[in-house]
Specification:
Strand content: 5-15%
Structural class: alpha+beta
Radius of gyration: 20 Å
Largest sheet: 4 strands, mixed
Number of helices: 8
Order of helices and strands: HHHHHHEHEEEH
Number of strands: 4
Shape: elongated
Helix content: 55-70%
Protein backbone atom coordinates (compact mmCIF):
# COMPACT_ATOMS: atom_id res chain seq x y z
CA UNK A 1 0.00 0.00 0.00
CA UNK A 2 1.44 3.38 -1.04
CA UNK A 3 0.76 5.73 1.88
CA UNK A 4 1.93 8.76 -0.07
CA UNK A 5 -0.45 8.14 -2.94
CA UNK A 6 -3.40 7.44 -0.65
CA UNK A 7 -2.76 10.48 1.54
CA UNK A 8 -2.46 12.76 -1.51
CA UNK A 9 -5.78 11.46 -2.87
CA UNK A 10 -7.53 12.18 0.41
CA UNK A 11 -5.85 15.60 0.66
CA UNK A 12 -6.77 16.48 -2.92
CA UNK A 13 -10.40 15.54 -2.30
CA UNK A 14 -10.46 17.61 0.89
CA UNK A 15 -8.95 20.61 -0.89
CA UNK A 16 -11.47 20.35 -3.72
CA UNK A 17 -14.36 20.10 -1.25
CA UNK A 18 -12.97 23.03 0.75
CA UNK A 19 -12.68 25.22 -2.35
CA UNK A 20 -16.21 24.33 -3.48
CA UNK A 21 -17.61 25.07 -0.01
CA UNK A 22 -15.53 28.23 0.35
CA UNK A 23 -13.88 27.05 3.56
CA UNK A 24 -10.47 25.92 2.33
CA UNK A 25 -8.76 28.59 4.47
CA UNK A 26 -10.41 27.24 7.62
CA UNK A 27 -9.54 23.65 6.71
CA UNK A 28 -5.94 24.77 6.08
CA UNK A 29 -5.75 26.30 9.57
CA UNK A 30 -7.27 23.12 11.06
CA UNK A 31 -4.63 20.98 9.35
CA UNK A 32 -1.81 23.29 10.49
CA UNK A 33 -3.07 23.06 14.06
CA UNK A 34 -3.36 19.28 13.83
CA UNK A 35 0.22 18.96 12.58
CA UNK A 36 1.38 21.08 15.52
CA UNK A 37 -0.45 18.65 17.80
CA UNK A 38 1.33 15.69 16.21
CA UNK A 39 4.66 17.48 16.72
CA UNK A 40 4.03 18.65 20.28
CA UNK A 41 2.45 15.46 21.61
CA UNK A 42 4.49 12.41 20.55
CA UNK A 43 1.91 10.01 22.06
CA UNK A 44 -0.85 11.43 19.85
CA UNK A 45 -0.07 9.22 16.85
CA UNK A 46 0.08 6.08 19.00
CA UNK A 47 -3.22 7.04 20.64
CA UNK A 48 -4.98 7.57 17.29
CA UNK A 49 -3.58 4.23 16.05
CA UNK A 50 -4.83 2.41 19.17
CA UNK A 51 -7.48 -0.15 18.12
CA UNK A 52 -8.96 -0.14 21.65
CA UNK A 53 -10.36 3.37 21.19
CA UNK A 54 -13.79 3.73 19.66
CA UNK A 55 -14.31 5.62 16.43
CA UNK A 56 -16.07 8.41 18.34
CA UNK A 57 -13.17 8.76 20.78
CA UNK A 58 -10.71 8.99 17.89
CA UNK A 59 -12.90 11.57 16.15
CA UNK A 60 -13.04 13.64 19.34
CA UNK A 61 -9.25 13.45 19.62
CA UNK A 62 -8.76 14.55 16.00
CA UNK A 63 -11.17 17.45 16.47
CA UNK A 64 -9.35 18.51 19.63
CA UNK A 65 -6.00 18.23 17.83
CA UNK A 66 -7.33 20.47 15.06
CA UNK A 67 -8.08 23.19 17.58
CA UNK A 68 -11.48 22.13 18.87
CA UNK A 69 -13.38 24.74 16.89
CA UNK A 70 -12.71 23.13 13.52
CA UNK A 71 -15.04 23.77 10.61
CA UNK A 72 -17.83 21.37 9.67
CA UNK A 73 -16.00 20.10 6.58
CA UNK A 74 -12.97 19.14 8.69
CA UNK A 75 -15.22 17.27 11.14
CA UNK A 76 -16.99 15.45 8.31
CA UNK A 77 -13.64 14.59 6.76
CA UNK A 78 -12.40 13.10 10.04
CA UNK A 79 -15.52 10.94 10.14
CA UNK A 80 -14.83 9.71 6.60
CA UNK A 81 -11.18 8.95 7.36
CA UNK A 82 -12.19 6.97 10.44
CA UNK A 83 -14.98 5.15 8.62
CA UNK A 84 -12.47 3.99 6.00
CA UNK A 85 -9.94 3.00 8.69
CA UNK A 86 -7.30 5.46 7.48
CA UNK A 87 -6.62 7.20 10.79
CA UNK A 88 -3.06 5.82 10.72
CA UNK A 89 -2.23 8.13 7.79
CA UNK A 90 -3.99 11.25 9.07
CA UNK A 91 -0.67 13.00 9.67
CA UNK A 92 0.37 12.28 6.07
CA UNK A 93 -2.99 13.51 4.80
CA UNK A 94 -2.60 16.77 6.74
CA UNK A 95 0.92 17.28 5.36
CA UNK A 96 -0.27 16.57 1.83
CA UNK A 97 -3.23 18.93 2.22
CA UNK A 98 -0.96 21.76 3.40
CA UNK A 99 1.39 21.21 0.47
CA UNK A 100 -1.48 21.17 -2.05
CA UNK A 101 -3.15 24.22 -0.47
CA UNK A 102 0.08 26.21 -0.57
CA UNK A 103 0.67 25.25 -4.19
CA UNK A 104 -2.91 26.11 -5.17
CA UNK A 105 -2.77 29.51 -3.43
CA UNK A 106 0.86 30.23 -4.38
CA UNK A 107 1.91 30.47 -0.72
CA UNK A 108 5.60 30.39 0.08
CA UNK A 109 6.73 29.30 3.52
CA UNK A 110 9.72 31.34 4.69
CA UNK A 111 11.73 31.25 7.89
CA UNK A 112 13.58 34.30 9.18
CA UNK A 113 16.04 33.87 12.03
CA UNK A 114 17.54 37.00 13.58
CA UNK A 115 19.85 37.82 16.47
CA UNK A 116 17.32 40.25 17.98
CA UNK A 117 13.65 40.95 17.50
CA UNK A 118 12.97 42.80 14.23
CA UNK A 119 10.78 45.83 13.90
CA UNK A 120 7.73 45.47 11.67
CA UNK A 121 9.17 47.71 8.90
CA UNK A 122 12.28 45.56 8.43
CA UNK A 123 10.23 42.37 8.49
CA UNK A 124 7.85 43.85 5.90
CA UNK A 125 10.81 44.82 3.70
CA UNK A 126 12.18 41.27 3.81
CA UNK A 127 8.69 39.88 3.12
CA UNK A 128 8.39 42.09 0.02
CA UNK A 129 11.85 40.96 -1.10
CA UNK A 130 10.84 37.28 -0.94
CA UNK A 131 7.47 37.99 -2.58
CA UNK A 132 9.16 39.81 -5.46
CA UNK A 133 11.55 36.88 -6.01
CA UNK A 134 8.87 34.17 -5.82
CA UNK A 135 5.82 35.95 -7.23
CA UNK A 136 3.78 34.50 -4.38
CA UNK A 137 2.42 35.33 -0.97
CA UNK A 138 4.82 34.65 1.88
CA UNK A 139 4.02 33.00 5.20
CA UNK A 140 6.77 34.25 7.47
CA UNK A 141 7.91 32.42 10.59
CA UNK A 142 10.32 34.44 12.66
CA UNK A 143 12.74 33.11 15.20
CA UNK A 144 15.24 34.88 17.46
CA UNK A 145 18.64 33.26 18.05
CA UNK A 146 21.05 35.51 19.98
CA UNK A 147 23.98 33.22 19.06
CA UNK A 148 23.89 34.71 15.54
CA UNK A 149 25.41 37.81 17.17
CA UNK A 150 23.91 40.05 14.46
CA UNK A 151 22.32 39.89 11.03
CA UNK A 152 19.83 37.27 9.88
CA UNK A 153 19.29 33.96 8.11
CA UNK A 154 16.46 33.84 5.55
CA UNK A 155 15.21 30.51 4.18
CA UNK A 156 12.47 29.78 1.64
CA UNK A 157 11.98 27.01 -0.92
CA UNK A 158 15.52 25.76 -1.56
CA UNK A 159 17.08 29.20 -1.03
CA UNK A 160 19.11 30.10 2.06
CA UNK A 161 20.63 33.53 2.66
CA UNK A 162 22.95 33.64 5.66
CA UNK A 163 23.84 37.25 6.50
CA UNK A 164 24.67 36.59 10.14
CA UNK A 165 27.74 37.88 11.93
CA UNK A 166 28.41 34.38 13.29
CA UNK A 167 28.61 32.99 9.74
CA UNK A 168 30.91 35.77 8.62
CA UNK A 169 33.19 35.23 11.61
CA UNK A 170 33.32 31.49 10.89
CA UNK A 171 34.25 32.24 7.26
CA UNK A 172 37.08 34.53 8.37
CA UNK A 173 38.28 31.93 10.86
CA UNK A 174 38.35 29.17 8.24
CA UNK A 175 40.29 31.44 5.86
CA UNK A 176 42.86 32.19 8.56
CA UNK A 177 43.35 28.49 9.26
Amino acid sequence: MDLGLISVRYARALLKAGIEAGVSDRVYNDMLTMLESYAKVPQFKATIDNPMLSRQQKEDLLIAAAGGASCELTRTFFGLVLKEGRERIMQFIANSFITLYRKHNNLISAKLTTATTLDSQTEAKLRRLVESKTNGTVEFKTNVKPELIGGFVLEYDTYRMDASVKSQLNTILSQLN
